[in-house]
Amino acid sequence: MKFFIDTANFEEIKEAYSWGIIAGVTTNPSLVAKEKNISFHDRLKEIAELVDGSVSGEVISLEADGMIKEGLELSKIHPNITVKLPMTPAGLTACAALTKEGIKTNVTLIFSANQALLAARAGATYVSPFIGRLDDLGQDGVELIREIAEIFAIHEIPSQIIAASIRHPQHVTQAALAGAHIATTPYKVLTQLFKHPLTDKGIEGFMKDWANKDQ
Ligand code: E4P
Fold first, then answer.
1. What domain count does the chain have?
2. Is 12 near ligand 1, meaning CB less than 6 Å away?
3. What is the CATH number of the domain that holds 203?
4. What distance in angstroms lies between residue 109's CA and the mean position of ligand 1's atoms?
5. Domain that holds residue 47
6. Which residue's alpha carbon is at the smallest distance from atom 5 of ligand 1?
7. For residue 119, what pLDDT is reported?
8. pLDDT (mean) for 142-167
9. Pocket test for ligand 1, best of 7, 28, 32, 82 (most atoms within 8 A of CB)
């Protein structure tokens, strides 16, 4: 399983990218809205020039024609751009049309295996099931990843599964075990993945012993 980072904050992306683990970035309108005084397209360009991998930018239109127009514009920003489309009939129409143009797509807001299958058949490069939001409703988000992974394996479907709406480190482990190709992870959760008290204690012990060694 690869890591994408789920943010539109350039400082977070730069820092996480320096760790050598980031294979892509996802943004959404809410994440972009958190950033003050930026142009959406300029920010996507800045990210895509830094990161060697897929950078998802989401359309705002709700109609297929508008989504296609926006998707074509977004795709011109940089070859790394992936057009993110909502899981609606219009989103799938746009997905099929943009796929025909050779543009990468990420169908987002997936909450069932059937939605993932539909998105895949419309040609989605990536499908994004939101596991945290399902957990919030008392459903099992990780189980959805497992179902989609099994269906894609049985039917040899090439779309990649991005586990999205990741809330904590356990989600990351569980998504990897369930067969997600990618986990798009918020910066805070990425920093939590590093931590183990025995690692800190181990470093402290090594440093202390080194300082006290005979010379
Ligand atoms: C995925 O691409 C979305 O941007 C994201 O994971 C949504 O997560 P949330 O449920 O924390 O908003």
1. 1
2. no
3. 3.20.20.70
4. 8
5. 2-211
6. 165
7. 98
8. 98
9. 28
